[in-house]
Amino acid sequence: MTEPFTPPWSTMDNPRLEFAMEVRLTFPTAYMIANTPWGGNRSAVLVESGSFTGPAISGRAVPGSGGDYAYFRPDGVACFDARYLLQEEDGTLILLNNKGYLWGRKPDTMDRLRKWAFEGGEPVAHDEYYLRGNPSFECPAGKHDWLTRHVFIGIGERKPDGNLLRYYALV
After folding, report:
1. Is 10 a domain residue?
2. Are 74 and 23 in contact (CB under 8 A)?
């Protein structure tokens, strides 16, 4: 079993994160199911293109292979549930599953994020919102299966046409 991470490893008193990859996705179109019986809204954004790169891995997001199906709760928190394929430069397909949360630190932040992303509104500073995820990966046994043996966290930034996510492994 090989992995791209190096000691020192996490201890009970000192968890350690190591950068695994950065993923850039574009999904310029949003679909919305408004006013669900549960009190919120469901949205869907489909991956149009993207890329990923890290110290031990790089490639592209497979267009049309999935997207993010976020549930916007009545309290203003978006619970995202993304699933799409990555293709490593060597041809390996990797299924990325990412769940997490997006919420604004100010009452109007989520509305301004929507306007920025889908209506050409003004950019929203990263420190005005919380975009965090907990990805997991599926891939064939072999060169990239280290992705299936670690816990990852993601920190995201909204862009006008998609997201930028940086994933870190808890080593």
Report:
1. no
2. no
pLDDT digits (tens, 9 = 90+) for 48-70: 999 999 999 999 999 999 999 99
Share of the chain above pLDDT 90, in %: 88
Domain-located, residue 41: yes
Residue type at position 169:
A
Give a yes or no: residue 145 inside a domain.
Answer: yes
Structure confidence by residue, pLDDT tens digits, 8-41: 999 999 999 999 999 999 988 889 999 999 899 9
CATH number, domain with residue 109: 2.40.160.20
24: DSSP letter:
E
User: How many domains is the chain built from?
Assistant: 1
34-41 long-range Cβ contacts below 8 angstroms, 24+ apart = 38/71, 39/73, 39/74, 40/71, 40/72, 40/73, 40/74, 41/71, 41/72
User: Hey, how many other C-beta atoms are within 10 angstroms of the C-beta on 74?
Assistant: 9
Q: Which two tokens stand for residue 43?
A: 């949205």
User: Which amino acid is residue 107, in one-letter code?
Assistant: P
- As beta bridge partners, residue 33 has 42
Burial of 138 (0-12, 13-18, 19+ CB in 10 A): middle
Distance CA(169)–CA(53), nearest Å, equals 14
